[in-house]
From TrEMBL:
<dbReference type="InterPro" id="IPR029058">
    <property type="entry name" value="AB_hydrolase_fold"/>
</dbReference>
<dbReference type="Pfam" id="PF12146">
    <property type="entry name" value="Hydrolase_4"/>
</dbReference>
<dbReference type="InterPro" id="IPR022742">
    <property type="entry name" value="Hydrolase_4"/>
</dbReference>
<feature type="domain" description="Serine aminopeptidase S33">
    <location>
        <begin position="85"/>
        <end position="262"/>
    </location>
</feature>
<dbReference type="GO" id="GO:0016787">
    <property type="term" value="F:hydrolase activity"/>
</dbReference>
<keyword id="KW-0378">Hydrolase</keyword>
<protein>
    <submittedName>
        <fullName>Alpha/beta hydrolase</fullName>
    </submittedName>
</protein>
Length: 288
């Protein structure tokens, strides 16, 4: 079997081969380098829930959603409660529903139905890869089955997913985006700098990525989608966030007609989900 056929089959997902080998081959063959970089860019690193996160997840009813080849895990709290209110949780890149463990109990105490979803390639859902458009379609499929939420709470990448999902038809009254990215192109640039990609290689990667998701990167920027939406948005972002810079959250809050920004200090990108101050701000926004 030639190396070429092996690489091609691997890129199509039918013949697993180590990423290091793909990278080595791609660097020597510009025709395939765009595909290799996109696959590396979209590869997820599944994280297992902590003990405390599992304690919260174990109190939910768990269900599977089958969308084509994707087997998706979702969780429902307060399923038996007689309520018309529902909150949907959408985690960030390499995250899972358990990341909201410090927030979920307070939402449950309010008597609302709470639903969390493990996006493709995350948590216990199937797959090793993910992207915003795929994840948004999965969220849309979930709401087709369980109904539209009154509120969507997201972290990081989840904000972009929720925004594209709304373009696809998901309806909600309020949004809470914690540390959202504003321009996806900036994330591509960070990835490219980390791997020391040349301009030609970056453009090749961008072309393949846009072909894969069937959208331009600019069209799925939150700054592009935000002005089209009429719902109320609360952005919560830490000034010291080194993963998604604070300026991105600022830009997202300004993109919405009814957007506001709540700033924190010293929490960073992940600890912000464990903050009592953030939890209280969320609860206050829900009742305002």
């Amino acid at each position: 079997m030639s190396i070429n056929s092996t690489i091609v089959r691997s890129l199509n997902g039918t013949y697993p081969i180590p990423m290091e080998k793909k990278w080595e081959y791609g660097k020597q063959n510009s025709k395939w380098f765009g595909y290799v970089t996109v696959q590396r860019f979209l590869k997820t690193d599944k994280q297992s829930p902590s003990r405390k996160e599992l304690e919260v997840l174990d109190k939910a009813n768990r269900y599977w959603l089958q969308v084509r080849e994707h087997k998706i895990q979702y969780y429902v709290w307060n399923e038996s409660v007689d309520t018309n209110e529902m909150i949907l949780l959408v985690h960030g890149w390499n995250g899972q529903t358990g990341n909201f463990a410090r927030i979920i109990p307070s939402l449950v105490e309010r008597g609302v139905r709470v639903v969390g979803i493990d996006l493709p390639g995350h948590g216990v859902s199937s797959g090793r890869y993910s992207n915003i458009v795929l994840s948004a379609n999965i969220v849309k499929a979930l709401t087709d089955q369980i109904g539209n939420p009154n509120v969507i709470i997201t972290h990081s990448f989840g904000g972009a997913v929720a925004s594209v999902a709304q373009e696809l038809g998901v309806k909600t009254e309020k949004l809470i985006y914690i540390a959202p990215p504003s321009k996806l192109e900036l994330l591509i640039q960070d990835f490219s700098r980390y791997l020391e990609l040349r301009d030609e290689e970056i453009q090749n990667m961008r072309t393949v990525l846009e072909k894969k998701v069937k959208r331009t990167m600019a069209s799925i920027d939150l700054e592009t989608i935000g002005p089209k939406l009429e719902n109320e948005l609360l952005v919560i972002h830490d000034r010291g966030d080194f993963e998604i810079p604070y300026e991105m959250g600022e830009a997202v809050s300004k993109a919405w007609k009814r957007g506001t920004l709540f700033s924190t200090e010293g929490l960073g990108h992940k600890m912000i989900l464990r903050s009592d101050l953030v939890r209280e701000k969320i609860l206050g926004f829900l009742t305002s």
